[in-house]
UniProtKB/TrEMBL annotation:
GO MF, any single term: oxidoreductase activity
Residue numbers binding glyoxylate: 56, 185, 220, 322, 325
Positions annotated to bind FMN: 109-111, 138, 183, 211, 298, 353-357, 376-377
Gene3D superfamilies reported for this sequence: Aldolase class I
Keywords: Flavoprotein, FMN, Oxidoreductase
Matching InterPro entries: Aldolase_TIM, Alpha-hydoxy_acid_DH_FMN, FMN-dep_DH, FMN_HAD
Domain FMN hydroxy acid dehydrogenase, first and last residues per copy: 30-427
Protein name as it appears in the record: FMN hydroxy acid dehydrogenase domain-containing protein
Names of required cofactors: FMN
Residues of the signal peptide: none
Family under the similarity heading: Belongs to the FMN-dependent alpha-hydroxy acid dehydrogenase family.
Organism: Dentipellis fragilis
Active site location: 322 (proton acceptor)
Amino acid sequence: MDPTNKPKGPSPHYSLYQREVFRAGGEKGQLPSFSVHPDELVESTKKTLNNRGYFYANSNAGLGWTDKANRDAFFRWRIVPRMLRDTNTRDLTTELFGHRIPAPILFAPIGINKLYSPLGELVPAKIAGELGIPYCLSTAASQPIEDVAKANEEGASIKNESNTVHRYDGPNGGNATSPRFFQLYMGHDDEITISLLERAWKSGFDVCMLTVDTWQLGWRPTDINIANYVFYYPGAVGNEIGQSDPVFMKKHGGELEKDSGKWIDSSVWHGKAHTWEKIPWLIKEWKRISNGRPFVIKGIQCAEDAIKAYEVGCEGIVVTNHAGRQVDGAVGSLEVLPEIAEAVGDKMTIIFDSGIRTGSDVFKAIALGAHAVQVGRLYVWGMSHEGEAGCRHVMKSLLADLDITMTVGGYRSITKDVHRNKKALRYNPSGVPPGPDEHAKL
């Protein structure tokens, strides 16, 4: 934590953020306004959000067993620390679809962010730009694609404490101040789909990520209890991408005025599943629009589907169960990650999603075969407290946590020392993870 003992390395010294917090408290009496301990953080959002916002962020399918399975899986894998290794500088950088990024972390696509902060997706997009890590925009966003891109670029222009801007190499040496991915919910009107992809590409989103596990919402009792489907309420948020799309509005603008759910029901969560036969067409169209940029499928939970994704032409997959929000009683995503990595890890880029809360979680997912991870609920909880400041505090804390875990754990390079390193972890099949309040008893 001594800033005079921090020689320049491949990555920013994220660990110094802990020191900044400590010094602000000791010298100025300035304490963080909320806890970044994940259990305390989710609890405190009950005070910052109304019921619709809180439950939409935290509702799970059924009894919540899949959400619990996600966290249980992390508990059962234990890190094996190594001693007397030189970790004075760490290399957290990794390459993701041609982008060299400073840490293997992405902002996951989460819809209707205006439920958590008035500026909605403009907040995490800006913070992602500041940090130089990828931002993924949801089709169910509550800000137009073009405005989110501008916010991301604005964040990338902000100088850090060293009075420099972090910029990382993009595809073919292009500008990659912060890589942008577009998460597509694909309806059954191909003209609207193409319009969305063209808008995304023109706005600098250069990876298409198709979500395949949410043709309709899973059964979420805590949302049912309060009829928590914001799109149906008059003046509802969540239609912004549809309202700003010329093709959708030409076809359905009049209907949207009478039925605020028209956009979400027909073009996002439409309740009518596609099949593998449709994917080659979509990949071809995205390649045509983007001059050959990567295509990723989000929602893979078994090796067979991962292999199929590779066979139809995908460059990457996201191993996720939608954070336990779709199928109750399903496998935890980390449970299936090793077999998926074994099947396609040398052929495809694997992004892990579902249950990431700490730097140790990131470490474990990378060690089990992911090339990078997505973080969702964490940044939503942060922005629900203080908007930009809250989102920034949570994400910088996560980066510091990962950096410190690497330092004290004895692992210098995330790609060379951690990625698919079975010796870095030990599996413990028994035991019960502590409950949310257990840390308070220690």
